[in-house]
Amino acid sequence: MPPLIKEELRAFLPHTGAMRLIDLVESWDATSIRCRTRSHRDVVNPLRQGGRLDAVTGLEYAAQAMGIHVGLLNRERSTEGLIGYVGGVKDVVLSVDRLDDCPGELTIAASRLFEGGDSFMYQFAISSGGHNMMTGRASIFLKREPS
Predict the structure, then answer these.
(1) Which residues form the domain of 115?
(2) Which of 14, 63, 76, 91 is 20 to 30 Å apart from 132, CA to CA?
(3) Number of structural domains in the chain
(4) 3-class secondary-structure state, position 25
(5) pLDDT tens for residues 78-102?
(6) Is 126 in contact with 107 (CB distance < 8 Å)?
């Protein structure tokens, strides 16, 4: 499928401004997505604490990639009032202490392992320069907010 730039991602994420962390969807298909970003280097990244971006914030990068993927696969479905939640994470391995030290782009890759109605399980990896920064699995649940 064709790449998607940051402006096109607003259709798939409720986040705005600097909180929309993904810069580019490089590729995606029925079971996986591959994204890139440089937002981890941005000094105004809203996830920074004490002037640093801890590696655990990679979970939000992974969640946004997974959310975009679910949105891409369900484009014909009405998303009005639909919110995605991370239900749980498992087998998370952090290989670095912080992400803002990575000079190159981050690559966020996620592969869907399971789909059942409004729930999904993904395996994800965040890397930079060919080195893994974080790996793990996460569950995503969709819920329609009452109107």
Answers:
(1) 4-144
(2) 14
(3) 1
(4) strand
(5) 556 678 889 899 999 999 999 999 9
(6) yes
| Pairwise CA distance, residues 125 & 142, whole Å | 22
Q: Among all chains, which residue has been given the structure tokens 């869907």?
A: 112
pTM attached to this predicted model: 0.92
The CA distance from 140 to 120, in Å, is 5
- Pull the structure tokens for residue 126: 């965040």
How much of the chain, in percent, has pLDDT values that exceed 90?
A: 68
106 CB-near residues (< 8 Å, 6+ apart): 36, 37, 38, 40, 58, 61, 99, 126, 127, 128, 133
138 alpha carbon, distance to own chain's centre: 11
DSSP per-residue string spanning 90-145: EEEEE-SSBSTT--S-EEEEEEEEEEETTEEEEEEEEEETTEEEEEEEEEEEEEEP
- Three-class SS string for 44-64? CCCCCECCECEHHHHHHHHHH
CATH number at 13 reads 3.10.129.10
